[in-house]
Amino acid sequence: MQRPVLALLTASLVLAHGRACAAEAPTTIPAAAVQTAEQLRNEAMHDDTAYQVVKSLTTEIGPRLAGSANDPRAREWAIAKFKALGFDKVYTEAVTYPLWVRRSEHGAIVAPFPQSLTLTALGYSPGTPNGGLTAQIVQFPSLEALKAADPGTVKGKIVYIGYRMHRTKDGHDYGIGGGIREEGPPTAAAKGAAGFLLRSAGTDADSRTPHTGLTDFRDPAKSIPAAALSNPDADQLERVLAYGKPVTVKLDLDCGIEGQYTGYNVIGDIVGRKYPDQVVVIGGHLDSWDPGTGAIDDGAGVAIALGAAKLIHDLPQRPDRTVRVIAFANEEMGLWGGRAYAEKHAAEVGKFQLGTESDLGAGPVYQMSASVKPQARGAIEQIAKVLKPIGVAYDAKLPGGGGSDLSQMHLKGMAALTLSQDATHYFDWHHTANDTLDKIDPQQLAQNVAVYAVFTYMAAQADGDFGSAPGAFAGDGAGD
Amino acid sequence: MQRPVLALLTASLVLAHGRACAAEAPTTIPAAAVQTAEQLRNEAMHDDTAYQVVKSLTTEIGPRLAGSANDPRAREWAIAKFKALGFDKVYTEAVTYPLWVRRSEHGAIVAPFPQSLTLTALGYSPGTPNGGLTAQIVQFPSLEALKAADPGTVKGKIVYIGYRMHRTKDGHDYGIGGGIREEGPPTAAAKGAAGFLLRSAGTDADSRTPHTGLTDFRDPAKSIPAAALSNPDADQLERVLAYGKPVTVKLDLDCGIEGQYTGYNVIGDIVGRKYPDQVVVIGGHLDSWDPGTGAIDDGAGVAIALGAAKLIHDLPQRPDRTVRVIAFANEEMGLWGGRAYAEKHAAEVGKFQLGTESDLGAGPVYQMSASVKPQARGAIEQIAKVLKPIGVAYDAKLPGGGGSDLSQMHLKGMAALTLSQDATHYFDWHHTANDTLDKIDPQQLAQNVAVYAVFTYMAAQADGDFGSAPGAFAGDGAGD
Question: Domain named Peptidase M28: which ranges (chains A, B) (predicted)?
Fold first, then answer.
């Protein structure tokens, strides 16, 4: 999403490459499968399995920060839920990662106008020293300005960047806001800053609910305390800075990395009748940030995949290929579940028929794009035709990236879709305490289930494949 | 607002009473004063003094819980601001009240599904014992149901009432929500409950920002820990309760009454040229709840009154009567500033020409009503005529209550207005962390200033009075 020009260019390259091997037989979807997909679509639009799943997850488990006390509870919940929905195989695969913990977080303007600030520590932020970190604020208008700054202006200070995100349907402004959150802290640290603050990478201009999220800290020894202010608190800090006096802020963060943790991807298979070792894979991530209950991020994704698979499971007979649902471990702290899965299964990438993950909330899918071999373009068009009546446009020029964790399998060579959801309000609630069940519209969630049920089933029944092979889509520009 | 039928009935009584003494000369406003009021109105609509005042207060001071460290800072701010705006006299009057402090507050569902709850302690709530209060929830659909409950069903439990407030222009649903918050805790305590929880008395259905506010606890020895859940947390608790298993909640509140505190009403006079001892009084309250910065409640009210008075101050000559602005101390914990003022000045009530306080946010005024003597009804109609072009309707049947603190002077016999503001969104933010400057629309704030400048000036210049006298408006049904 952050690189549309590159995406278009490289998609053209894929198409050009495709023409050179056009002698292969085209992949097609049999008429009976199309008809069943239409039935699945219509049924899904009135099915509430997904809503019941995300309701159960957010009510019975709630926040699911990777490695927290709720991590194993969520895993047990997932295993039980997969089994209850009738998956033929339910299993887990280990995912090991650094354990980051958050215990408490406070912030305050110390001078010139003492008052508390509502903030949240960012992922992999170290804690502040005992008694907190008190330092002067130095403000930069952008990440680029910080990168260009003389370290002398930054040393010993708390860097603040106040970029204000705006709502867009495709959520592209998160490319800037999230980029500041990720790159800002290590950039400031490298210049000798004592700490880092940003205006939350979120579009809720009026809410005192700061947005947490990942930083790009790679080395704990080179990391500094980093936190996000809520939008109104950022407004307040900027008003105070506008008085032109030195502004001193105190950060008191009790958080940090505490060794390693081993979590698990939870995987369920509906085993294919004809080609059990060929897999259509869908999913979401089971972990969530801790302030909210992980409803839109990403209980919805897990629920959409489970809801779609359940409808396929309930058909009179198993699909031709295996339908796999993965509830990934620790997406939030750096795609740990997705990367572990891709490493473990890279050699089998050719057996992955098609895949994508849902991880942009619960808004309706409005666009599909795909990275597939040229001979499968017709099959994608067949899928698009079934999805068109429920509001999904097909953009044949854009690549398909596979979503968040499954982007890693796509990088290995798995044919993949991008199913763009309406993200207009997603970044109002993303990574905040407000990520709760009430943000999900059951009817919009059902539309997502319909989309996933349709493409999953049609790919599972296709005559032919979509081009998965080691390195098949290298450089297609998919940036999900 | 909670008793419209009573209000209409008693307003009729006032009118009936009026006819009996219609021989008095009518109060009228001279043509020159009407013309000046029109100029003030037009000027106010483009004046940003009030916005600058509330910006200054919320930025430089922020939260102003009565008796907190910010209480004297806010007082010094107010004294300096009154002086800077040119008031002829600036002085304070002491207000003594119980000091309630809030240090920390946490809540959690312990069983069957452990997870934290976002909540806020209510005013005058005692703290929980060391280690917190853990007890089973007993749910009631309404305050009436709690009142009717057998104490045996409540004893030792945490009472929960989940009334959901809805947005209305006049904010009348706060009569129910606020009533549960005030009466629910002592009612539960009297039946032996261990604690009290309610769904926040607020209309922000999707925000994790709980609404604090006052309880009706009168006796610390008979008080129990009481708190409000945010709306999404109330949804969550109700979903958990719907599983039909016993639900155990832990409250950990560090708060309570700590002796007494003496704060101050801050008062500024623009001294009348002809009748310096006759006063038109307007104001707001200087204290605020602590989670937010007290922008709409009630920085806006203080700012509106100061903005209006400043425009009158800047006229070529002082008004005939004194214009008084009061920034009241500790309205939030029980009208302490307003009651102290009324007690101190009850004997002079006949010298208070007319008054009202702004304390319902920063939405535009859409309606005026008045409790005045019948012979002053024509003068009120003259005021209404000047206000009509800026969207203010006049309801001659409803009484005027004087606002929150000044309701106490009205109870003593002061002629008073009610200036109804559009409160559609007021209870989204009221008493929450979200009560911040960004909720104020400068243009809507300016409309309020125009309304206050017009009526204040016209009342100050009137030929005749509005009927203030000891006990003059007893039982007029004003419930502000």
Answer: 265-453
Tell me what ipTM this predicted complex has.
0.94
* Chosen from A59, A245, A441 to mutate, greatest number of chain B CBs within 10 A: A59
Q: Report how far residue B39's alpha carbon sits from residue B42's, in angstroms, rounded to the nearest whole number.
A: 5
- 3-state SS of A9-74? HHHHHHHHHHHCCCCCCCCECCHHHHHHHHHHHHHHCCCCHHHHHHHHHHHHCCCCCCCCCHHHHH
How many angstroms separate the CA of residue A137 from the nearest CA in chain B?
A: 17
B51 contacts in A (CB within 8 Å)?
none
Distance from CA of B239 to the nearest CA of A (A): 7
* Subunit contact B232:A115, Cβ cutoff 8 A: no
- Say which of A60, A206, A436 has its CB closest to residue B439: A206
Contacts of B63 in chain A (CB under 8 A): 115-116
Neighbours of A91 (CB within 10 A): 13
Q: Are A444 and A9 in contact (CB under 8 A)?
A: no
Burial of A317 (0-12, 13-18, 19+ CB in 10 A): exposed
Q: What is the mean pLDDT of each run of 10 residues along chain A (480 residues)?
A: 34 42 84 98 98 98 98 98 98 98 98 98 98 98 98 98 98 98 98 98 98 97 98 98 98 98 98 98 98 98 98 98 99 98 98 98 98 98 98 98 98 98 98 98 98 99 98 83
Give the length of chain A. 480
Gap from B423 CA to chain A (nearest CA, Å): 17
The answer to whether the CB of A402 falls within 8 A of the CB of A258 is no
Mapped onto helix, strand or coil, the DSSP state of residue A255 is strand
Q: What is the mean pLDDT of chain B?
A: 95
Shortest Cα distance from B141 to chain A (angstroms)? 21
Question: Which of the following CATH numbers is that of domain A102-258: 3.40.50.300, 3.50.30.30, 3.40.50.740, 3.55.40.20?
Answer: 3.50.30.30
Is the alpha carbon torsion for B385, B388, B393, B399 positive or negative? Answer: negative
Whether A55 has its CB under 8 Å from any CB of chain B: the answer is: yes
Q: Who contacts A377 (Cβ-Cβ below 8 Å, separation ≥6)?
A: A18, A370, A396
Q: Show residues of chain A in contact with B59, CB under 8 Å.
A: 113, 236, 239-240
Look at A115 and B293 and tell me if their CB atoms are within 8 Å: yes
CATH number of B27-88+271-476: 2.120.10.90, 3.10.450.50, 3.40.630.10, 3.10.25.10? 3.40.630.10
- Which residues from A are below 8 Å from B231, CB to CB? 438
- Of the candidates B62, B118, B292, which has its C-beta nearest A433's C-beta? B118
Task: Show me where the domains of chain B are located.
Answer: 27-88+271-476, 102-258
- Distance between CA atoms of residues B30 and A410, nearest Å: 82
- What DSSP element (H or E) covers B378? helix B377-387
Chain B interface includes A434 (CB < 8 A): yes
Rounded to an integer, what is the distance from CA B75 to the centroid of its chain? Answer: 18
Indicate the SS3 state at residue A154: helix
Contacts of A205 in chain B (CB under 8 A): 438
Asked if B176 is an interface residue toward chain A (Cβ–Cβ < 8 A), one would say no
pLDDT tens digits along A223-241:
999 999 999 999 999 999 9
Interchain CB distance below 8 Å, B206 and A293: no
CB of B438 within 8 Å of a chain A CB? The answer is yes
Neighbouring CB atoms inside 10 A of A89's CB total 14
Residues of B in contact with A291 (CB under 8 A): 208
Rounded CA gap, B278 and B276, in Å?
6
pTM for the structure as a whole: 0.94
